[in-house]
């Protein structure tokens, strides 16, 4: 048998002969091209190339009924003719102008934003957006109330501790202006005044910290300085000043307005006066009230003095901690309710994950989720689960909807357009969902005569039903039942999307792969185009298990694709498909030229302390810790394979194939080697004989 010889230097320049691969592919069981899908699995259809029907994405102007409903939603009085006659843009401006910023701050801000956009955006806001943001504002009212109470309380404490005359107007100022007023009204030469001047030059975080923390610390330092100054006039004067400051600090902890008549009152009288304050009748101050009541019942002056000096503040701190715990637990209950609904629905996995993160976080994390986070994770994509067709996505820029992996071209990683959907509450049923295009605001996936399409929402009840989908879990993922066509679910077939029913009588109701085709995996938004490499990864369970998830962008180089994954690298070629390489084998493969030399024909197999992979043109790489990564190829590889390869008597190769006089040779474990004669193709399996000396 004649074969072509190769030296290591020639390997680095690439192999020029393809006959070896043809000769040995059958012998060694090496596929000559990418594998076909296993029998019974889905066969990919042609990738759709239809242009979007932009006309179908037109957003109709808001109807008078929709404007009537919008006015009622924002609580600004009757929807009179002067409202209803306005154009959609002017209507949105009037919402901004008339709506209460205290009750509906988010709706007001969104109306301002939308007014700066297009007329269709204004129509969408009137039709659905205003109701969505009104609901957000109403849901957030509890948070705003708590935030307002916290703001008032901390500012009152700041005012009282800084010995500034109470002014209700200061309670509603912005943080920056409040800091300025503290600077203006604080005692000249005090640390509070100097600290306020410094804080005023800072940013929002500095102002907030000054109001909640710094001003109290500086006021305490000013108090200590005042006591020390009074001590220079005598101990009696120092005790008088300290008593006054302690009482002012105690009242500030409630907080309440200090009364000058309390300055000369004995401690027990002062405590009884505190019990008459209306602030102590508020449930939020129950800890202070109970502590004051207990102290007032004592006959020990030391108990009264301790309560005034430290006990009231300690009780206030306990009350604050209790209120924070109660608020936090109430907020966490709401997060858990949101999470439960998202988990049960199955179409908002990012919302579930965000809720889980918030629940393991701080109070601030929970509030941030309720205020913003839950609305930032509603975008998702719908991916197919049919074997052989995995890695395709629901996609449309208008009109008919399809599934597609996208057009890879010669690029590496790039986004797939028109495949991301905002998972909104169902237009016709809040217990179900609607899928709004993030690329075309106000457009939803809907069924029309069983075909699934992307159309602009016209506000009719029929459209709302057509665009509402009720999820159900199946063994193949999430099935989406049409609200307009009960019993029919979203199904892909021949890349088209229909609402289908098993045995329904239409061509798209066929039994074959019905469950697989109507199951969906809800995945992250903004998916990449599924290149041939990624389609191989999606549809090869073994490859996914070997490689893990992608960790870098895909590279396209001279017709070959490769991408780094968690556990190694995947290479794809049109004749080989997607194949996995890792570790020492991959290091040696790169040293030999990588994909510019040969492509892998099989996934790398690792086990029992060794690794191996077959490459094009009859070449293979084998690795063990003792031998390193060595090449075996051509006729020598064929002979070695016939003897059991690495599991046979010869064991693993200990050298690459190399030139010898008249032929080629490869060395193996235990002293074995195989030679090939260039003249007649003769193969010899030999073993070195070691002759003892002596």
UniProtKB/TrEMBL annotation:
Coiled coil residues, start to end: none
Biased composition (Pro residues): 36-47
Keywords carried by this UniProt record: Signal
Domain Alpha-L-arabinofuranosidase B arabinose-binding: 386-522
Gene Ontology terms for molecular function: alpha-L-arabinofuranosidase activity
Keyword Transmembrane: no
Statement: the UniProt record of this protein carries the keyword Aminoacyl-tRNA synthetase: no
Listed Pfam families: AbfB (PF05270), LGFP (PF08310)
InterPro entries for this protein: AbfB_ABD, AbfB_ABD_sf, LGFP
Annotated signal sequence range: 1-34
GO biological process, alphabetically ordered: L-arabinose metabolic process
Protein name (database record): Alpha-L-arabinofuranosidase B arabinose-binding domain-containing protein
Taxonomic lineage: Bacteria, Bacillati, Actinomycetota, Actinomycetes, Pseudonocardiales
